[in-house]
Please model this.
Amino acid sequence: MTFLKIKNSVKIFSILLFYSLIFVYTIAFNNSTGWMLFFFLVFLMIVDLISLFPSLKMIKLETTELTTYTVNQPSQLTLELFRCQKSLLPTPSLTISLKKTLNSSLYAQLFYMGTRETFSFQWTPEKRGIFNELPLLVGSTDFLALFQKQLVRQVSGPFMVMPELQKEKAELIFQIILTKLPNFKNSFGNRTFSIRNFRSHQFGDALKTIDWKQSVKRNELIIKEYEHEIEQDTELIFYGQDGLNFESLLSLYYSFTLFLERQMPFSQTIIVDSPMEASHEQLFALASSFTEHRQLPMYSNKKLIFFAPSLTQELGEQLELLQKNNTLFLITYHDDKPFLHWKEQIIELKWEAAHG
Model:
């Protein structure tokens, strides 16, 4: 805005200097040509100043639809433009731009008369949260584009911005979990060596499950079914204790939940500070970290995937207790590097592998 004021001041000074020189010329030579030129320029300036009369305060912007947005992901935003009061004078040149990108217009219209119009543009949110207003810069010039005026207009929301999506990283974590626990997607746990039942072979049964001894006796292919361990449900837990990597881990957790939804059923527990009335979807936009350690719920016989920005002593003690009665994976940071803990193994998550 300061640069705009300086630019306008230079223009005004140049115009006044030009008019002064014309006036001096007219007085000095006192001829009809000089006076005609002077009055023509005065008339032209009056007409030009009149073209500035339409007020930008009458320009309104409204959203035509509300949707969910994602950090650092371009989204289509459609707005409706109109003038709340009619004017006989058009706006010679109307421009609309984001407040942070003054040199890139989202909308430009010559001789705007105030009719209702819709326009769309790509908006890339840079911060997570729920924002009630989006500031846009509305600008206009006079007929000769000598002067410019601008006004910030707030577009009413709410605009709900979710954490950044990290699809490749989420898939990499899932693949590592599958290598450590191949039956992770199976809710019935590991197969034991105890035979539960014999039955006739069906299409799709693996050959290794055929009991050849029973098959010979019965003169047909017989399948042996094994007992399984007790059913284990999958639980995702985000533990939002304050730390430098809170936002990064929340983004990773959010991405992992979206990826896992397409793979298998699961439930989740999100331990963060948030407004009491926030819905589950709003929780990802409004979540903030907490400082003091919090007690974890007690789980039993579950497959737990635990996300924490850092592994404190208090948290480590609780996780040791949970590990006794659950299958536990822990994703956390050490020295700003992400790691996956599985039993006694600590695996560094090297993201470049996700693009290989």
Remarks:
- The chain has a mean pLDDT of 85.
